Amino acid sequence: MSLVSTEQLAEQIGAGDLAIVDASYHLPETGRDAAAEYAAGHLSGAVFLDLATLVDPASPIDNTMPPADIFARRMESLGIGDDSRIVLYDDSAIKSAARAWYMLKAFGARHVAVLDGGLAKWKAEGRPLVSDTPPPPPASFTARPDPARLRSKADMLTNVETPREQVVDARGPGRFTGEDRETREGIESGHIPGSRNVHYARLFETDGTFRNARELREIFAASGVDLARPVVTTCGSGMTACTLAFALHLAGKDDVALYDGSWAEWGADPRTPKAAGPAE
Questions:
Q1: Domain that holds residue 11
Q2: Which of 12, 73, 132, 186 sits between 20 and 30 A of 158, alpha carbons compared?
Q3: What is the pLDDT of residue 250?
Q4: How many CB atoms lie within 10 A of CB 170?
């Protein structure tokens, strides 16, 4: 089960093999501090993933996937092992728990789920939070990277020239078409030629829970995505692209890869081709 309800998680809290993880990440412009918010109140037994630092320190691009050894050490430091049942949640506008889900799956974790509705739904239902952070138990995590889950800029350039995989962009329509200028200096506007646009915010109900599988399939199909063909997801910096990947998983589609560099890498390179306007 990849998506758990607040009721299901509440019944399981305290189980010895359950690892609850706060995977909140906030964009800098929000002014929010995920670590401070976790310290102020979190689910009982939850540990703080700190997605902002779980990156490749050698990469010039923000938020890129960390090397396997760094990822494994972070998991072990949080008490997450090979046999852990992991439930991820966030309180983020960009639904960052999906990024943590994709990372864990890319490194071979077997039992990973996302809390439907996240911390906001948990709090709205009056469920308890705590501020204590007990030390995590000893754990051994074996990172098994799956190269098929990631695409590089070179891969994407090849795909533009000879399309084999559909590219689906999670950014808002204005950024996709180029009508809204990119806020980061040195990043051009537009999108990867041939890509489709499914804004990640469309995947959720008003209470922050995911739409059902049928509705998700309809959203992707209406945007020109053929669910019978492989997909690569992209966004601004590799975060909400993972939300698309998780939604596709819920819709029954798992031949999905992530362009981790996303527009932060593509838009910063003057040599990459760029398109403007609606999807072709």
A1: 3-145
A2: 186
A3: 98
A4: 31
